[in-house]
Amino acid sequence: MTETPNLPIVRTVAALRAHTRLWRERGETIALVPTMGALHEGHLSLVRMARVQADRVVASIFVNPKQFGPKEDFAAYPRDERTDADLLAGERCDLMYAPDPAEIYPPGFSTTVSIGALAQVMDGAARPGHFDGVATVVTKLLTQCAPNVAIFGEKDYQQLLVIRRLIKDLDLQIEALGAPIVRAPDGLALSSRNAYLSPAERQIAATLPMVLNEAARSLTGGRTVAETESLARAALSASGFQKVDYVEVRGADDLSRLGPGPLTGPGRLFAAAWLGKTRLIDNLAV
Ligand code: PAF
To answer: Which of 23, 10, 13, 9 is CA-nearest to residue 140?
Structure first.
């Protein structure tokens, strides 16, 4: 593709490092916003947060095959590099890093970064191997770019905690910041996968945040965690979600299971559910 004015696009680690080396030599700080492209307002909010955090902003666009299961939507995942580049240029991003798969996983590549307990529950249990794929690619992106700070959306809250864990365990000198979920006017959390929804599914999808908000209210009102989770599951099924992977209340820092009695301290309420072929996730603080 031709370059977007004011937004250099690099596709190799060497070219990425040529830019970041120059910035570091000048004493400038760097923020990385890792994405899989198909950018929407949620991603752009990450870029805006990055701008506030550092002198230079790099956005990576890489649809990572290793974080998709064999029956998942890797081939169908939306890709529109031209529009992504225009959106990033509009946010005054300094550099777009869009490597080819062979740059990230050259022949012979055989290392996996695997995280313990945090990555075994919820999405880790429902999507075996998913967090190995995320942790492996994020470790590579972080070491390739070596930013001061990296920004991740709180819609993938479990992912944020997994990444913070790997940064700590691997002694990377990078701060991982979480950015608040950006929602459509009807409350649905923005996601590249929302593009898969039919108009009828899109209407049902908006009940996910409604059910979570109602569940949060009843927890605050003293209903037990176990009862709230089971009522929320039933409400999602009644709304038209064909399958509910989980509705769980967990500790916000360590994802420890809270309940089954009433909530005694701050936690996070998580849900994942299917509409046709689309899997939606959401979460909120409780
Ligand atoms: O959240 C995402 O878009 C991806 O999981 C990430 C962090 C870019 C890794 O591929």
So the answer is: 13
